[in-house]
Design a protein that fits this description.
The complex is a heterodimer of chains A (about 130) and B (about 230).
Chain A lengths: L8 H6 L9 H21 L3 H23 L13 H32 L13
Helix pairs in contact in A: 2-3, 3-4
Chain B lengths: L2 H7 L2 H22 L3 H21 L3 H26 L11 H24 L1 H4 L11 H8 L21 H21 L8 H11 L1 H6 L4 H16 L1
Helix pairs in contact in B: 2-3, 3-4, 9-11
The chains are: A mainly alpha (about 130), B mainly alpha (about 230).
Chain lengths: ~130, ~230
């Protein structure tokens, strides 16, 4: 009860965050944040494995959007749900991400064997 | 508001959503901010697991389970193996320059503003869900993957919509996965340092000193050479 009467709860109610059911937009915001974090991760990490993790985050953000649009629980009044299509696409995205991670990891290990580093700034052999 | 009325007013679906959403977004940002690659992998595991919780809350329990099993259980283990195989001391944390960080922050802020504007712009997406309870989706999903749709058409969808199964995409993905895994195993195979030809050359270089000592017994010299060859190729 002490937790419930905490002072941070009323502002959340005032913002309509705790009392109202979740809508698709809630999920889209989460997807947008995951996507942006992934893009930044791909852009600034110099470790090849960090770039891979950024790719995983981007794919995951897209998956959140697909699942949200497919969900019958989140469908608002008058909205059209993707139905099973969204879930199947999310499943395929997960599978293809696993395949992509395997190949990218193999390439990274090859690069590490040949150059003894995983710093992608050193991968400039093809520079003209 | 007293505690009891507050408790009654809380929508616990929303509360759990906020919990998992906060965890997923917080750990995703932690992946970006962390410099140590091992910590990045840990934060990524936690972020992806929280996202599986979001999938469960959206009624996609099979996708959530697959997210846990394939992503968290498979892909991330692969990534952690990559981290362990390449984590020599200088590469555990490679620093990014401050200028790059500032530039990335500006780009991220504008991209996030654009995406959030798009998320809030469609009115029908912002209406709270009608709370329609759907049956578990694992059976319809499995049947759709073998080409037979047993699920009801989505509410609000046009009645004339064509509803096909996913047998062909399923087969394409499975062949793709097989080819990709064979290719990955080929790419990452251990390279043999010494070819058989190089071993023969090395044996013929090493053997003369011995064959000089055992002059006259040609068979012994060949025996030594073949022993060297077999020893080198072992």
């Amino acid at each position: 009860m002490n937790l419930v009467s905490a002072s941070w709860l009323p502002p959340l109610f005032a913002a309509g965050l705790l009392g109202e059911p979740v809508s698709v937009t809630h999920y889209l915001v989460v997807g947008a944040i995951l996507f942006t974090a992934g893009i930044v991760c791909m852009a600034i990490k110099r470790n090849a494995l960090g770039v891979l993790m950024g790719i995983e985050l981007v794919l995951n953000g897209a998956n959140v959007n697909f699942v949200a649009f497919a969900s019958p629980y989140l469908r608002g009044e008058g909205a059209v749900s993707l139905g099973l299509d969204g879930q199947v696409i999310a499943l395929f995205v997960i599978l293809l991400a696993a395949a992509e991670a395997a190949v990218a990891l193999a390439i990274t290990l090859n690069f590490y064997n040949n150059h003894s580093t995983v710093d992608i700034d050193r991968a400039d052999d093809l520079k003209g | 508001m007293t505690g009891a009325t507050l408790l009654a007013a809380i929508n616990f679906h929303t509360l759990l959503f906020l919990l998992f959403a906060g965890l997923a977004c917080g750990f995703a940002v932690a992946v970006v901010l962390a410099d140590n690659v091992v910590r990045m992998a840990l934060y990524l595991v936690l972020s992806l697991a929280s996202t599986a919780g979001l999938f469960f809350l959206a009624g996609a329990e099979f996708i959530g389970a697959m997210q846990l099993m394939i992503y968290v259980g498979g892909t991330l283990v692969l990534l952690v193996f990559g981290v362990m195989l390449t984590a020599q001391a200088p590469f555990v944390s490679i620093k990014t320059s401050t200028g790059d960080r500032v530039l990335a922050g500006v780009v991220a802020a504008s991209l996030l503003a654009l995406l959030l504007q798009a998320a809030f712009s469609v009115d029908v997406w912002r209406r709270p869900g009608v709370g329609e309870v759907a049956p578990p989706a694992a059976t319809p999903l499995g049947m759709a993957l073998v080409g037979a749709r047993v699920d009801e058409p989505a509410a609000g969808a046009p009645a004339t919509a064509v509803r096909s199964g996913y047998l062909l995409p399923f087969e394409i993905v499975s062949i793709h996965l097989l080819v990709v895994l064979v290719g990955a195993a080929y790419l990452a195979r251990a390279k043999r340092r010494r070819t058989p030809r190089a071993i023969e050359v090395a044996a013929s270089v090493e053997s003369p000193s011995e064959s000089v000592q055992s002059t006259g017994s040609r068979a012994a010299a060949t025996g030594t050479a073949s022993a060297l060859v077999s020893g080198g190729s072992r």
